[in-house]
Amino acid sequence: MIEDDLRDALRARASTYEVSPHAWLEVRRRAARSRRLRWTLLAAVPLATGAVLAGIPLVVTHGGPDAVTGATTAVSGEPTPTYKDAYAAGVAENPPIGETLTLVNPADGKSMLLWFARAKAKGAAGFADLCSATQLSSGGTIGSCAYDSRNPAHTGEVGWYVGGTDGMLPRPGKLITYGAARDAVTKVEAVADDGSRFPGTIYRPKGAPLAIWTVSYPAQAKLTAYELSGAGEKVLQRVKTDPMPVPGSTAEPVGPAAKLGGGVTARLHRDQSLVWRQDGKVVALFVVASTPQIEPGETLADALKGNRRPVMSRFTHDRWLGYARAGTGRVVLTFKDGTSIEADAMPDPWGGDAVLFSAPYAHEGDIYAEGYVITGYDRDGGEVWRDEAKPVSDLWASPAPGDPAFSGPAGQTGPPRWR
Amino acid sequence: MTEAQVLSRERPTFAEIFAAHYSAMVRLAGLLGADDPEDIAQESFARLHLRQARLRDDAAAVPYLRSTVCNLTRNRIRHLRIVRLRRPDPPPPERSGEQTFLLAERHRDLLAAVDRLPRRQREALVLRYWLDLSEREIADAMGVSPGSVKSHTSRAIAALGRALKEDSDD
Known about the structure:
The complex is a heterodimer.
Chain A (H helix, E strand, L loop, with lengths): L1 H13 L8 H13 L2 E5 L43 H8 L6 E5 L6 E8 L9 E8 L5 E6 L12 E6 L9 E8 L5 E6 L4 E3 L1 E3 L7 E8 L4 E7 L5 E6 L17 E4 L2 E5 L4 E6 L2 E7 L12 H7 L4 E5 L3 E7 L4 E5 L5 E5 L1 E2 L6 E7 L6 H4 L1 E6 L5 E7 L15 E4 L11
Antiparallel strand pairs in A: 1-5, 2-3, 2-26, 3-4, 4-5, 6-7, 7-11, 8-9, 8-12, 10-11, 12-13, 14-15, 15-16, 16-17, 18-19, 19-23, 20-21, 20-24, 22-23, 24-25
Chain B lengths: L13 H18 L5 H15 L9 H26 L10 H6 L2 H12 L2 H11 L5 H8 L3 H24 L1
């Protein structure tokens, strides 16, 4: 029967198509590019302490108007890097329509600046993009102007989601999301799968074409929708949440997961993602690469050597974790006040000639603003390396404590100052 | 079985859909004649991510992917055809020894005949005999009526029969 032969033949041919181990990263990159089409500026972010925003590792060099993301490497012992100002660059390219809104990131108290700008994308003439510039706690800023390529006019919608810190790694303890709303919207609430609700705020920056809604909520909440209500508390629209792809990796693991105690595991994947989980949930992700270009097969040792760092670490809201040079038996994190925490190191199980570590982390204050030192010791207790993180200064003034937001005048030369 | 099922009572996440269906979409694009099946599959998933919240229900994700793979492959082949009008065809891609082994002798003539089919007929055959889709599902993926699917499929089978007979006569 020709049909049976056809089935066999198609099955045989199908089996010859191979799948790239980097496919998931590439899909995430494309998905993020679709959603946030125009990035205004990616300012310098130290790779060692940089965040991963919206599931995209910060590994591409030199941000530009079309760059997905960007990073430079801070080398231990060099002067504190000078960070570019994503807001200054953003408003230069995308002048604000109306006032700029300053929000407080509930995770770290840093400023997030939001403003509307004239949409530039093809087919979006006459509409407004909602632009943002976010200060990262680890230093540097990132910015973007978002528009919806499917429906730039948002026909039939009274409000929509634009962005937030919900795709950020290391996973913050508290998240903030925001979007745009039309005049009819007077109230916003986020709804979680267990029925809990998180009330948000509607801001109406003077001169802006639309209102801005924001919602803060704990990271463990699993949101299902945002409810936008109008007069008489009538729900005008439910905006279903559309989370970014899970910022982990579906690429094949290189080897077994490393178990570091406290429910923490680390696993290296063939797309060079080093994914850290705590109680099964992704809490941090490193891109293991010696250069901004991801090369398959590089080891942790290659990444350390290429970045000229003895250690790569991250702080989640309750954990310090990372990897360091081979031969390290113990790592000690020393805060500015002299107090410290330490962790035993274990060899990485992927033959990468490096060690892994993880320890509970709790610290009052902003560790990045204070600066810190990480010291590596060998099994005999001798110091083998030292990595100093210089204090990172805020680029922008933060709103006064207790005040949730601030609208500054349009056309100002710098970011709005709280007054 | 060419596509794994997402066995979850909760709404599958985008990552789960990717894990379950990515390789099948690469293969579908390849069987439809795409010159870079992974590029087609990745673009299809990126578009799904953009639209996932707007799909009518969870079950619509995979049909959406199939349809996007068909459309993108069709556009890509059309583009290549235009490009080839301006420059000669590149040499055929070299296959590894393993691939050559997998494509056993008896399949080669048949697959060569499939490659020569008109685009719609090829789509209908691949969706029917590789993915085992129903006429309605094939119609959705191709953006045509079920009646057209029936007609494309029967013409394709007839054309394959003729091609194989001619080959054996030679």
